[in-house]
Write a structure and sequence with these properties.
There is one protein chain. With 254 residues, this protein is mostly helical. The protein has helices at 8-22, 34-47, 49-81, 83-97, 105-112, 116-140, 144-152, 157-191, 200-209, 213-241. The protein starts with 7 loop residues before the first helix and ends in a 13-residue tail after the last helix. The relative contact order is 0.12.
Length: 254
Amino acid sequence: MQASLPWVFPVFVLAAWQVSSQAGWLSTRVLPEPWAVVKAFWALTVSGEIWTHVATSTWRALVGFAIGGGLGLALGLVTGTFRSAETLLDSTLQMIRNIPALALIPLVILWFGIDETAKLFLVALGVFFPVYLNTFHGIRSVDKGLIEMARSYGLSGWPLYRQVILPGAMASILVGVRFSLGLMWVLLIVAETISAQAGIGYMTMNAREFLQTDVVLVGILLYALLGKLADVAAKGLERWWLRWHPGYQPQPRT
């Protein structure tokens, strides 16, 4: 019963949507009924077209996340650990962070053209800052008393960093990863409007040209589903890597 509770509201919305469409309260050109969306999804699945677009979008999202998240993690560790690196880099990064990724699209097209590099750059830039900021914050928030205690037991250098500082910062780093995974799909929607020849964004924009609102909704729901799957994966990583943390251990049933 408890597990089904989060699905009550979505089911209610779907039911209200279907009833409103059948009653004629909603125009099918504005918002097609759920059953029409299901039929469009099934037609795309049977033809195999949808898997091509999902595979292309997933590849772009994961490569962009690997590049941007990897750089964010590396620079967050460096600036969080070394004050000199923070002084040298952090102000510049904070200025760049305040530039909306969408405002860079004209420049990105000039720099990289309209091929895959431009799309990967936008996704990487968007996911970079949440990982960077949370890594920086996580390193700086590690309990100083814990570090001193570890030093009194003879830990120093890389062993101290690997066994005390990194585990202490891991919760904050994973918050950044989780936020970035959601942002990754949002940016991909925009990136795939830049002259894409495949991908969920291309499928959605192409359907809009032919007023296929049911296919447009399939694309939007696919983004939502993939975003939810990414969030579930991030929560799984949290539970695995922070299984030692009291806040992430299963609570006994009362």
